[in-house]
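A reminder from the course coordinator: this example appears on the midterm review sheet, so study it carefully.

Given structure:
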């Protein structure tokens, strides 16, 4: 394995690059811990100016220091000086996981290796993992953004925070960890799994907030009940949950189960990790994208056209302050829409992610996402949020079986009726016939992080 050579144009002795200089020049003075940053409160006009300055520096930084960007832009006949307005970004080609994989392991880095302080990587269930690098400055900004999300979601300096996102190459654990510390709160670095231990620590350490995936929090609720404890009696008041798609119905389920407020947090490793967007405690109206660091676009995934505000499509991100791994027009495959800012008017919000385009089930010509099933199932009495979708092809015809657990308190007979109702509503609302198989409580696999919902056995 060979390390990427230090780019010629980069000062290998650690002198700040032009992007770092642009960030420093546009950065406001720090505010006291636990209070909003100045950039959080700026209006849209000022935001556009800030974005343009940082965007110009990012594109130049990528072009001059990463050969993959230089080759891509040369092949498309665009150069950094073609970006004079924010709209000019549309002239630049998209990037995706393949672009990063082709640069495996470190060729996408725009700084010499001696300035890369940390590496993370995506799980890479198929093919090579995508490798992400961070400079000292990147790590510091990440911690600041995560702490901004925590504060926005109601967590305060001095709180005890139970961190059940997985530690390791996954960005969840360490990303959250340093965010909690930056906020001036106390982090319990529990990581994922070991449910019994989690329950003991939550009971004994009395955290005010918990950080984990929504499905893992449900698994914890089961764990509490199994231990003869009522999850509503814990010290928890806030959950900052993300890393997988979840619905409003799931939010309601979780809030009821623990008697807490559950807020969303969004991010992806390629773009930074968790903390790209976070949700207001007061409004719970979708995650606010921290646009002083990330420029979002929504495109039609088929035509790649940029869509008008409010339209549903694929989320695309450009980083504005990432030194080690600048990311320009990265196709996330996440499907959502952009909404105007509310609590932070200069920063737009994102709607809930309905799913990933690569997680879309095509069933006899109908497109559907697991979130649609979640949304329907949780409105039917007697059915639990624990379900799996099994896809098979008997007699060359696609079939989807929804395996779903009945709730403990629901009788077998009532659960069968509820199952029929679920099939009926899926047919009406999604347009697909399916088989619903009601399972006994505690029989389907529980989450230990990101839950796998789809079992495609068609091939
Ligand atoms: O899941 C980062 C993260 C950790 C986010 C902890 C939030 C909390 P990846 O493993 O690279 O990074 O996966 C990124 O997860 O493209 C979405 O498809 C999905 N995802 C992340 N957050 C949310 C969310 C982390 N709040 C991929 N809602 C993304 C829906 C989410 N999907």
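Designed residues:
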């Amino acid at each position: 394995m060979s390390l990427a050579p230090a780019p010629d144009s980069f000062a290998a002795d650690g002198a700040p690059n032009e992007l770092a200089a642009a960030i420093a020049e546009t950065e406001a003075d720090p505010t006291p811990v636990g209070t909003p940053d100045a950039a959080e409160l700026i209006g849209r006009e000022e935001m556009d100016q800030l974005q343009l300055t940082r965007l110009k520096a990012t594109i130049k930084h990528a072009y001059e220091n990463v050969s993959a960007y230089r080759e891509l832009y040369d092949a498309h006949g665009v150069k950094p000086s073609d970006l004079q307005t924010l709209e000019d970004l549309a002239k630049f080609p998209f990037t995706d996981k393949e672009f990063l994989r082709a640069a495996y392991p470190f060729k996408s880095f725009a700084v010499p290796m001696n300035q890369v302080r940390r590496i993370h990587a995506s799980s890479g269930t198929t093919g090579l993992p995508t490798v992400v690098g961070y400079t000292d400055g990147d790590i510091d900004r990440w911690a600041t953004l995560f702490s901004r999300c925590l504060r926005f979601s109601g967590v305060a300096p001095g709180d005890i925070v139970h961190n059940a996102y997985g530690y390791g190459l996954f960005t969840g654990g360490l990303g959250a960890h340093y965010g909690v510390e930056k906020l001036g709160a106390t982090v319990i670095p529990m990581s994922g799994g070991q449910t019994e231990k989690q329950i003991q620590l939550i009971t004994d350490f009395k955290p005010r907030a918990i950080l984990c995936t929504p499905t893992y929090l449900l698994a914890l609720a089961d764990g509490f009940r199994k231990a003869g404890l009522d999850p509503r009696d814990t010290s928890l008041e806030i959950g900052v949950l993300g890393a997988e798609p979840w619905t409003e119905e799931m939010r309601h389920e979780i809030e009821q189960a623990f008697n807490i407020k559950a807020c969303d947090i969004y991010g992806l490793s390629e773009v930074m990790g968790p903390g790209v967007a976070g949700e207001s405690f007061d409004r719970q109206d979708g995650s606010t994208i921290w646009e002083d660091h990330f420029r979002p676009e929504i495109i039609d995934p088929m035509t790649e056209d940029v869509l008008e505000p409010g339209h549903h499509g694929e989320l695309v991100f450009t980083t504005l302050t990432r030194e080690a791994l600048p990311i320009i027009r990265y196709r996330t495959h996440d499907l959502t829409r952009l909404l105007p800012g509310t609590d932070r008017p200069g920063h737009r919000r994102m709607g809930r992610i309905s799913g990933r385009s690569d997680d879309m089930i095509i069933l006899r010509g109908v497109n559907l996402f697991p979130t649609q099933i979640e949304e329907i199932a949780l409105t039917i009495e007697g059915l639990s949020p624990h379900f799996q979708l099994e896809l098979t092809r008997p007699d060359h015809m696609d079939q989807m079986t929804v395996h779903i657990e009945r709730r403990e308190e629901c009788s077998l007979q009532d659960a069968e009726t509820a199952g029929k109702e679920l099939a009926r509503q899926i047919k009406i609302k999604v347009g697909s016939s399916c088989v619903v198989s009601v399972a006994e409580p505690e029989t389907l696999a529980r989450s230990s992080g990101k839950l796998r919902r789809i079992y495609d056995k068609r091939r």
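The longest helix spans residues 44-65. Confidence is low (pLDDT under 50) at residues 1-12.
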